[in-house]
Amino acid sequence: MSVIDSIIRLGVAALLGGIIGLEREVSHKPAGLRTNILICVGSALFMVISRHIPLGTAAGDPGRIAAQVVTGIGFLGAGVIIQSRGSVLGLTTGATIFAVAAVGLAAGAGYWGPAVVGTAVVLLSLVVLSKVERVLGTRVAQYRYTIIATESASLLNRIESVLEELGVAIDEFSYERTDEGDIRLTFGITASAGQNKLLQRQFVQLEGVKRVVSPRESE
């Protein structure tokens, strides 16, 4: 393998990792453009090195170094998975990191077809299937709510009752008084898109609630 060939393989890995990373960056995910490029290029570099090392020895297995990438990338993927009130978040990001590493290994080995097809499948899963999940209302994400209401000792209990009915747990709760004398409740939840829509309608109907700020998806 020549130096030029190695550079081309690393360049292709950077391009494919950047394509996937751009989608993650636009979607405001933890592992964005830079992270995915680094993972893809790093995996490709390990593969290139593993192909070079056996050339100078009597015997060697070019797959040994590359095999360790699979183990190592598993720890990185686990780092982005968060356990929150019984709901596991970050699985898609962790799986994306694993897939990007595989694309990098393929590019580093010079298997252009599998690398390109793998990138296309990853993008299809992230973009198209994500929209399908949104339409079906099954996609689970974190949402942050802000509710402006009049002073009421039972308001929080009523909010918790609504959440319990839908099987949604409250998280990161904060309470403060506004300049107008009202109270501002801010809290996070983990719910599907369908549950989130139901919550918005029910929160507005609660006694004492003046305004419900449109929740932001914060996964």
Can you describe this structure?
By secondary structure, the chain is an alpha+beta fold. The chain has two domains: 3-136, no CATH class; 140-217, ACT domain (Alpha-Beta Plaits), CATH 3.30.70. Helix content is 58%, strand content 20%. A four-stranded antiparallel β-sheet has the order 4-5-3-6. Strands 1-2 form a two-stranded antiparallel sheet. A hairpin with a 5-residue loop joins strand 4 (170-177) and strand 5. The two termini are 43 Å apart. The mean pLDDT is 80.
Q: Percentage of helical residues?
A: 55-70%
Spans where pLDDT lies below 50 across 5 or more residues: none
Structural class: alpha+beta
State the major sheet: 4 strands, antiparallel
Secondary-structure element order, N to C: HHHEEHHEHEEHE
> How many distinct domains?
2
Biggest sheet strand line-up:
4-5-3-6
First-last Cα distance: 43 Å
Average predicted confidence as pLDDT: 80
- Helix segment tally: 7
Tell me the β content. Answer: 15-25%
Can you count the beta strands? 6
From the spread of the alpha carbons, the general shape counts as: elongated
